[in-house]
Input
Amino acid sequence: MKILLLQPPWAEVYGAYRDAARIGNAYPPLGLCYLAAVARKEGHDIRIIDAEAEGKAITAIIKEAQEFSPNLIGITASSPIFRNARLVAQKAKQVLNAPIILGGPHVTVMPEQAMEEGKEFDYAVYGEGEHTFLHLLDALQKDAPPAEVPGLIWRKGKDVIVNPPRPFIKDLDGLPFPDRSLLDLSRYSWGVPGIGVRRMTTVMTTRGCPFRCIFCSQRTMFGTAVRFRNPESILAEIEDIVRRHGVRHLAFIDDTLTLKRERMVALCEGILKKKLKITWEGWTRAECVDEELLRIMKRAGLVRISFGIESGDPNILKIIQKDTDFQKLKKAYKAAKKTGLETRGSAMLGHPYETRTSALRTIRFLRSLKNCDQLYLNIAVPYPGTKLYEMAHKGEGGLKLLTQDLSRYRRYGDAVIEVNNLSRNDLVRLQRIGFLAFYMTPRRIYYNLLRAGILPGLRNVLAFARGVFKIGPLKKND
Output
């Protein structure tokens, strides 16, 4: 079968911060690459369109789809870009006679609603998609009943049928490596501290999250039991990335990269033993690192580490079930900077029970983290599949949900909630104040201008300024 896999345009959901998002959040669509790998292994002809990376608006997507003339179309979507996924599917339906499958986080957390709203989709895969996708392809080729495919959603007349879930994949090493050959990897480049702009790609080494943060839906998507890939398999994938694609900067997309310390050490020792000349980065929790571990990781190529801060108010941390404390955060940042790493952090404003006092306390705490180089300061968004979503709909913690239009669920430059004495405009202003308070220090200005070269630094500063000060018109997809 000829199969077209699509990631719709997404940058518009960042509003005024669109340019900054395209620089810092342009990840290759790893999930589609996994689907492509398992399907190509069975002899199918696959094409991937990453609309945002390729700069393709919907009209251009449809033109390329017509030229390829697929037998099947698969579209992935998170909740904020579900509207874009529907628009692509609607246009495709008008010119192509091919079933359309929906996959990704949105349909996983809202299966019936997504299909009831998205009449354009013939099928949907919820949860981990690789095995369900293959099973569906086999069923379509054999004209077998869709009711026999676990993890599938399908239509029977006017009814939406949700089949029983498929068990999570226990052996992640049994999956083929993501097929990155279907992407133009030159379109994915990040600034690497001390080196400059490098082509990059993403690597997944675990699935599942044991933590209970109320703002995250990863537990719904991948479960609470963490499944680990073996270091030998990860090393083989890294070698493949370097040898076949010439990519030497990796972003590990695990929720907590250092969750199992001995495994991280084994991976680093393998990188050093194989003399893989790479740089890499990842996210983890402050309590899951120490100076010795960070030094081992640094020797193996780690250049940047990110920690979840979430709030500078201890009571808010308890409410959002972020089991950490400020001393652990400060210790982790200090150790990372002492090791010579670039450091990032993420935090939010607008949590349940947030007040102006707690928000300002967060901003002061963020500014005081002298060992943190870069900051993602979000406005809390009640994404479907999270406890925060349930609380917002019930009005708990002083939350007031302003809209249920998921395309407006932006973390930057806008808010879809109000909380206690903080209006939408208050939250937007506090976010702007927080960014300025954090970045407008001599050390951070100097560092971020020169960290990856003066030209990338100026580009990043301009993109950031456009978001904070709303400079220039906001482009839209047609």
The radius of gyration is 22 Å. The chain has two domains: 2-162, 188-469.
